[in-house]
Amino acid sequence: SETHMPKDKGLDHTLKLLDEGYRFVTNRSDKFESRIFETRLLGEKTICMVGEKEAELFYDNTRFSRKDATPGRIQKTLFGEGGVQGLDGAEHHHRKAMFMSLMTKAGLEEMSAIIREEWEREIKQHSNTEIQIYQAAKHILTQAALRWTGVPYQEADVPEWADQLSDMFEEAGTVGWNHWQARSSRAKAEERIAGLLERIRKKSAEVSKDSPVYHFAMHRDLDGELLDVQIAAVELLNLLRPITAIAVYIDFVLLAVYDYPEEVEKLASEEDIQHFIQEVRRFYPFFPVAPARVKEDFNWNGYTFEEGTLTLLDLYGTNHDPDIWDRPDSFQPERFQAWKESPFNFIPQGGGEFNIGHRCAGEWMTIDVLKTTLDFFVNNLSFEFTEQDLSYEMNDIPPVPKSGVIIKEAQLKK
Ligand code: HEM
Questions:
Q1: Would you state the pLDDT for residue 3?
Q2: Superfamily of domain 14-412
Q3: Where are the domains of the chain?
Q4: Tell me: the pLDDT tens digits for 180-194?
Q5: What is the 3-state secondary structure of the chain?
């Protein structure tokens, strides 16, 4: 039997999405008492879904495609055009493998070591002044991203790199001047990187043959051809930009340290650190939804999905789904002791499989960077928080606290 999906009344809900932000989908799924409903966004019929079974459906490659799923204005700022996010099938697997092959134990350990070194350097330089964690983390992560990928850079250029990379994720959802600023930053960064990749191909730039930048420059597609240099630049930015974006989570880690000192007291083992980090990724909002399009008409649980329909999976809502999480709105790292891990019930960085699906290529790296940072702040540093406005908005992307989280009197422990 066929039923119609509950449908949001009205012509377009884009403004409500901007206003309700991370709660847009769950406000409606609660009202309709349905985890799947239809609405209109940016002038287009759109299906929204939230929940574990719904995530499993969303990540079924036979039913959904990523081609043309991301709005143009997000591509021109956040993702770039022609990158892994919009590929399907064999082409996607092959391109994704280019990313996943970097995420080895050695590669991840190298990143953690760089992060620790950069934090130490930052603290030594600023022990007498206040440190704004969000700004400091962006700087450290940009430097770490350039070092880890092997992109040659001058220390003096790091602030400019940091600004360009963060424009892409800070301003992606904005309109007007900020949107154009983000486009311009992307265009400049792509041009700079495309130039470097060309020089690597012509052997006129010196980079290590083991480095990710070399690997991307020389990557061959399924037909044995080098990637278009512009697309290779987009993919290199798919490493640099989100590494810098880990600053958003670092800010939330420090906010959690401020807000839940009783949980910080409990941190004894590496496992405790891991659970604290997982709870930060579950609890705080960051990446709101993942987009796809229906491949061919199908029915699921009585609902009709029509070919081509834009479909959004609510990542934040699934991480706060009371069917999955007990008291979802309270911060409880211990919940991860008993967590029944599935690829679909905890999806801050997307769900499903890494290799054949679009789950975030950098999830392991993100977890390691956050663990290293929390361990450093809790076990290797003494510091105090200043008086500040730590509130954040549920309709801001990314929703970093206004003050950016400020600490003072930071000293390395002897
Ligand atoms: C994809 C979140 C960090 C590289 C994604 C997706 C999300 C996400 C939600 C899309 C999932 C989907 O479409 O189904 C995040 C968050 C991060 C983060 C919140 C924290 C800062 C990173 C890092 C890297 C990275 C550090 C690289 C080192 C990628 C790539 C994709 C991706 C390449 C595309 C994967 C594909 O389309 O197959 N990420 N990510 N991300 N992420 Fe991340």
A1: 65
A2: Cytochrome P450 (1.10.630.10)
A3: 14-412
A4: 899 999 999 999 999
A5: CCECCCECCCCCCHHHHHHHHHHHHHHHHHHHCCCEEEEEECCEEEEEECCHHHHHHHCCCCCEECCCCCCHHHHHHHHCCCCHHHCCHHHHHHHHHHHHCCCCHHHHHHHHHHHHHHHHHHHHHHCCCCEEHHHHHHHHHHHHHHHHHCCCCCHHHHHHHHHHHHHHHHCCCCCCHHHHHHHHHHHHHHHHHHHHHHHHHCCCCCCCCCCHHHHHHHCECCCCCECCHHHHHHHHHHHHHHHHHHHHHHHHHHHHHHHCHHHHHCCCCHHHHHHHHHHHHHHCCCCCEEEEEECCCEEECCEEECCCCEEEEEHHHHHCCCCCCCCCCCCCHHHHHCCCCCCCCCCECECCCCCCCCCCCCHHHHHHHHHHHHHHHHHCEEEEECCCCCCCCCCCCCCCCCCCCEEEEEEECC
What is the average pLDDT value for the chain, to the nearest integer? 95
Looking at residue 191, its pLDDT comes to 97
pLDDT of residue 177: 80
Quickly tell me which residue has 């699906």 as its tokens.
Answer: 357
**Which residue ranges are tagged as binding site for heme?**
360
How far apart CA 294 and CA 107 sit, in angstroms, is 36
| Site to substitute for ligand 1 among 91, 146, 211, 349, most atoms within 8 A of C-beta | 349
Q: Hey, which of 61, 314, 360 would you mutate to test ligand 1's pocket, going by the most ligand atoms within 8 Å of its Cβ?
A: 360
Residue range 36-95, pLDDT digits in tens: 999 999 889 999 999 999 999 999 999 999 999 998 888 888 999 999 999 999 999 999
Average of pLDDT values for 210-220?
98
User: 110-166 pLDDT, tens per residue?
Assistant: 999 999 999 999 999 988 899 999 999 999 999 999 999 999 999 999 999 999 999
Q: Is the pLDDT of residue 2 over 90?
A: no
With 0.90 as the threshold, say if the pTM is over it.
Answer: yes
Q: Whose CA is nearest to atom 16 of ligand 1?
A: 349
Residue pair 293/309 in contact by the 8 Å Cβ criterion:
yes
